[in-house]
C-alpha cells in the first residue's frame, strides 16, 4: 500500500519591510485594545487563529510559512499583504506535516518588537532598517514601532477618559510627547465608540479670535460639523443672553442632547489663547462651568475634554495665572534608561551594556525628542556616539535648533537668564527665586533632585554657560 503523498508548498519569509508593517499594526492594536500591554504569544495565536508553533516559525525569520498563513496574520490586523512584505524561500519547501515537530517559544515571554528578532539574520534585518526611519519631527504616528510607552500615564489617561464629564490636562515642555499621547488617547476613545473632535488652536485664523461672539460661534460650528450635524447656529443663538450662554445652551440642548454616545473634544496648543487675553478670560471659566455641571446633568456628562498645552506658555504669564487648573493633570516624564535602550534597539542599535544609553542620557537627559534625534543620526546617518557628544558639547551639534529656541526665551527674560547663570556657575542650588525657578522648570531647563535644583543635562550646561556669560 502506497503511503499518502505529502503535500509540499514553497514557503515564504517576512522581509524587513513586512516585519516593520506587521509589528506596527500589532502595536497599534495593543495600545488601543490592550491598554498598551504586549500580547503574549498565546493571545496572538487566538486572535490570528494560527497555532503558536506556526507563529514561532514566522517570528524566527529563518523558517518559512505558508503564504496563506502570512496573509491571515496581516488581515487580522487590517493590513493587505503585498509582495514587498515577503520573499520566497528557495532553499527549502514548506511541509505542513512537519509543523508539530518545530519548537515553540517560551509562552511566558511577552511578545515584543525587538525580542522576536534573534540571530544573525536578525542583525541583517536591523542593518537594513535604516531606510525606514524618517527624521523625528512632530508626533510619532499611531502605527510606528518607535513609540515608547509610558504605561503609568497612558493607563491613567485611558481610564479617566471613560469617566462622565471628565477633563484631562496634558502639559509638559515642548517636544515631550504630548501630541503622540493625544493620538493614542483619541484612538482609544474611538475604540470605545466615542465621538472625537480634535481642535488645533494654531489652525484657527486670527479672525476667529476677533471678538468673543465670533470665537464661540466658530467653536460650536466646528464641533457640530465634526459630528456631522447641521450647525443651525442662527436658530439656537440668542444675542440677548450673550455668547457664553448661547454657546452653553447650544452644546447642551442641541448637540449633546441628540447624540447617544460620549464625545471627546481635544483642545490642542491652547497657549494660543494667551495671545488674546479677552478670549482666554472668558473661555476657560466656561469650560470649568461645563465640568461642574456634569456632576448632575446627564447631557454634560457625555462631554469629555482634553486640554493640551506646552508649559512654555507659562513663562510669559503672571505667576497667578494658569491656563487651566481643573480635572486630571498629566505631565509627561523623561525616558528612563530602560526606555532609551528599548528605543535604541528598535533603531537597530545593539545597546546591551547600558553604557551607551547612560552616555546619551548624560548628554541630553531623557528628553524624548532629543533622544530620538540622537538615535536617528546614530542609526541612519552613520554618526558615532563619540562624535555626536563631542560636537554637541562644543557648539550644540545636531541640537542647535532646539538650543536656539531656548536661548531666545532667555534673552527675552533677563531676570530668568541671571537666575539660570547663577545655577550654571554653581551647578546646583536650593535657593533660587521661586518665580524664576518655576519659569525655568516650565522651559524644561532644570531638574529637581530632592531639595536641590540642577541644570537639566550636560548639553544645557555646556551650551548656556558660554552663551549667558556674554550677556550677564
UniProtKB/TrEMBL annotation:
<dbReference type="Pfam" id="PF14516">
    <property type="entry name" value="AAA_35"/>
</dbReference>
<protein>
    <submittedName>
        <fullName>AAA-like domain-containing protein</fullName>
    </submittedName>
</protein>
<dbReference type="InterPro" id="IPR027417">
    <property type="entry name" value="P-loop_NTPase"/>
</dbReference>
